[in-house]
Structures are given as structure tokens and as C-alpha cells.
Amino acid sequence: MWEKWVDPFGQDMDEAKWTDYNNDIADIDNISNSEPEDDEEDEEHKIKKYKSIPRNPIKVIASPLGLIPYNEHTASGKIFNFWLGHTNFSVSNKIKNIIEQCDGVEILDIFTRYRFRIAIGKCFNDSEVISAINDNIYESLS
């Protein structure tokens, strides 16, 4: 059985962007250009107002090369065409080799005895690659 893989980190990438960048800059300018009435009271007011400005959170992922910013250019769900495969038989070394030998399989990750993930190359048709994997596995199990 197959299902499209969904990137657990990439769901709210668009939501993390500022919606009104120009107003945020205007608020920062107003804070720095305001005339102080009372130095202590004005500083507290500036800090409170500055803290209320929405910030753009930066997502990062840990890798062997260090922390990498997670954006639309580094999101694995946008770079690769991932599919999850579910089986009712063990994904043995024999099955692993069959999957890896199919044209179009770019990446193979075996998660559990019954679950794996593949990435299908951009120049290949999803349904053709999945059909070839199914056919080759069924043939070997018969």
C-alpha cells in the first residue's frame, strides 16, 4: 500500500512569514524616533512595544554538517518526491534490493520491518515507478 509522504516540518512554512513587513518596520521606526517624556517610563514603554512586534521565526534542522536553516530551498519535501510504502510482509534484504534496482528510485529509507520510504526522481512518473516496484516484489514473492 502506498501513501504520499508529508513533510512534518514544512506544513506551516508560509504561515511563518510576516504578513505586513512594512508596518513592522514603521513600528520599529516609531519606537526609536519617539520623544521621551520620562526616561525610565519611556524606556519601559519602548521595550514593551518592541516585544509586541511580530518576528519571523527561523526554523533549523540539525545535520552532520551543523544547523541548517529550514526553508523552501532546504525542505526535503520540496526537493524530493517521497512516498511511503506499507507492507504485510517483512522488508528483507531481498526486497530492499528489488526496490533499489527499480528505475526511478532515488532514495530508499527502511523505517520498520513493514514500512519504508522512497524518493522518486523528478524525471520519472510516480505511478509507473510504484507499479514497477509492486510487480517486481509480487514476482519475487510468488
Instruction: Compute the number of helices.
Output: 5
Domain module count: 2
How can the largest sheet be summarized? 4 strands, antiparallel
Number of strands: 6
**Parts with pLDDT < 50 across at least 5 consecutive residues:** 12-26
CATH class annotation of the largest domain: Alpha Beta
Supply the key terms:
Alpha-Beta Plaits, 5 helices, 142 residues, 39% helix, four-stranded antiparallel β-sheet, alpha+beta, elongated, 2 domains, two-stranded antiparallel sheet
Describe this structure in words.
By secondary structure, the chain is an alpha+beta fold. It folds into two domains: 2-9 and 77-141, Alpha-Beta Plaits; 21-51, no CATH class. Helix content is 39%, strand content 22%. The protein is built from five helices and six strands; from the N terminus they run βααββαβαββα. It has helices at residues 21-33, 39-51, 76-79, 93-101, 126-141; strands at 2-4, 60-63, 66-69, 81-86, 105-112, 115-120. Strands 1-4-6-5 form a four-stranded antiparallel beta sheet. A hairpin with a 2-residue loop joins β2 (60-63) and β3. The longest helix is centred in the last third of the chain and has 16 residues, at 126-141. It is elongated. The relative contact order is 0.14.
Write the layout of secondary structure elements.
Blueprint: E1 2-4, H1 21-33, H2 39-51, E2 60-63, E3 66-69, H3 76-79, E4 81-86, H4 93-101, E5 105-112, E6 115-120, H5 126-141
Antiparallel strand pairs: 1-4, 2-3, 4-6, 5-6
